[in-house]
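Reviewer 2 asked us to include a model.

Predict the structure of this chain.
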Amino acid sequence: MSGTFRFATPWVLSLLLLIPLLFLIRAWLRQSGKPAAMRFAVADMAQGLPGSWRIRFRPITTLLRAVAIGMIIIGLARPQIGNAQETITGEGIEIALALDISGSMASLDFQPANRLEASKAVISDFISQRPYDKVGLAIFAAEAFNQSPLTLDHNMLNRSLDQIELAPELGLDDGTAIGLGLANAANMLAGSDATSKIVILLTDGVNNSGQIDPMTAAEAAKALGIKVYTIGAGKTGQVPVPVKSMFGTEQIMYQESQIDEATLQQIADITGGQFFRAEDSDTLGQIYDEINELEKSQVEVQIFNKYEEKAVWILLPALMLIALELILRQTLFRTIP
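Predicted model (structure tokens):
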């Protein structure tokens, strides 16, 4: 729900331009009229006398009148505050993201930093395009962990995503447990009654850890009605990887990039998903965009605006100012004809 402000009849505000014109005409009529005079007055007697505070402050009544007229015009323009309420019908898709955080994700073949940071940026953008879908996040290296449960609170989900670091930096055993990562993500969706459930698994390596074989995890996902999209991230051949030397300094070494494309393709085939290959940040972004198009939520959103009139909060003070001006003119600032 979000608040919005508007004027129901905004054209009335153009009358504000007439206020200075009215007071200019009033001042001109005063100056062009016949000035007050006394017959046989001795003007020299009034010279040097101190000015009365009533004379100095008399223009305040004119100011009060101008402000009151302006407030009345604003009130007649009918200021309103509205609440927009969204009514959502249909059902979104429930999505579990499985992200590889093994040490090889530090490879520098993705811009602007490394494979992990590029993946986090693309995933964050993907999440922002799924406002009505529950999304969860699992991470894996030698073991697998649930970073965030399925949630519609995507701000919290993005905070969890930001906190992800490489397994060695978190003090976790390095490795790539693809089967375990897939099993954790699928288990996140196991109790869901959504009509459409998907896992998007991103890795840059070969399954070499964990107690669950990737094919076993894929069959389990299929039995649960879960479609798995797999993404192999990384260039082929030698890629630059930052490595710490024995003296604690960081240096760049080139290592062979190995991705088990056959396994990732099999997982996708078993579950009715697709396998994608990304060799740079741009291609990775395009892959998530394609998945976003393939998995459209069947959600219809209707927005209703209910506006509340606020004119009374302006008109009442305006009437009080007019009353105050009239009282001042008949008391403190009263003029004798």
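The chain has a mean pLDDT of 86. The CA atoms of residues 130 and 292 lie 8 Å apart. We have added this to the supplementary material.
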